[in-house]
Design a protein that fits this description.
single chain, 157 residues, Small Protein B, Chain: A, 7-stranded antiparallel beta sheet, two-stranded antiparallel sheet, 4 helices, 32% helix, globular, cytoplasm, DNA-binding, SsrA-binding protein, DNA binding
Length: 157
């Protein structure tokens, strides 16, 4: 059976870019059970409140909800289990150093299929405070207003 080519997004963490300043991103494979893959193909996943940790030199994805597969039997997976992520050793060692140094965390940004394999995009991130979030919203609004005015002038209004 041929695998589909390209990237098809399963779930995104829309709040991540609002709550965190993204410093770096990584791509990691996931160790999944069969019913989890089938549920992901149906798009039944949520990254709300999800985070990743590094334990004993391995990266783990926590609090990701992958709903039970509808046609599954007693072999169905638990929806919120800890899932191992697959990364290169040098990437994991770099993450361990960066996480140990500062006030940083690993947040999943999106989950997708890439050439038939389930992947997750992780971000090395620093939490934003309330005043940082307000400043970002104000900058976004000002930029939108400038684009609107420039667009009107181009159209001759």
């Amino acid at each position: 059976m041929p695998r589909e080519k390209g990237k098809s997004v399963i779930a995104t963490n829309r709040k991540a870019r609002h709550n965190y300043t993204i410093l770096d991103t990584y791509e990691a494979g996931m160790v999944l059970q069969g019913t989890e893959v089938k549920a992901l193909r149906e798009g039944k996943a949520s990254l709300v409140d999800a985070f990743a940790t590094v334990d004993d030199g391995e990266v783990w994805l926590n609090a990701v909800h992958i709903a039970e597969y509808g046609s599954g039997t007693w072999t169905n997976h638990p929806p919120r289990r800890k899932r191992k992520l697959l990364m290169h050793r040098r990437e994991i060692d770099g993450l361990i150093g960066k996480l140990r140094d500062g006030n940083l965390t690993l947040v999943p940004l999106s989950m997708y299929f890439s050439d038939g394999y389930a992947k997750v995009e992780l971000a090395l991130a620093k939490g934003k405070q309330a005043h940082d979030k307000r400043r970002d919203i104000a900058e976004r609004t000002a930029k939108r207003e400038v684009e609107r005015i420039v667009g009107r002038r181009v159209k001759g209004m």
